[in-house]
């Protein structure tokens, strides 16, 4: 993974075979990353994906072993919270079908190109009904 920050924008380029969430964790460790990063856009491909659907009590896990087009990512990186990120993905499958959910795992296939908007807004997570919801510090 490589990335560059200028003003309030970070451009992230991930490479084939890298772990998407491990890369995010490395980004979080950087002192250059402010408190909050918002995904503006992300595209590329993912492989070996695990997504979750929250049924009100727990996540139902759905797996996609084949490479899929990353049609969209929405989410936040909140540096000092647990968990420090929350992503939802939409994936286009080879057969033209579409799937998506809460991203739990995924490997980069070919590339992932992501743009983040960063800001110094301090946030926290509060537990509620088996979830950790975002709140202001």
Automatic annotation (TrEMBL):
One Pfam family it belongs to: PCC
UniProt KW keywords: DNA-binding
PPC domain boundaries: 4-137
GO molecular function per UniProt: DNA binding
Domain of life: Bacteria
InterPro entries: PPC_dom
Keyword Phosphoprotein recorded: no
Keyword DNA-binding listed: yes
PANTHER family tied to this protein: DNA-BINDING PROTEIN, PROTEIN, PUTATIVE-RELATED
Protein name (database record): DNA-binding protein
Species name: candidate division WOR-3 bacterium
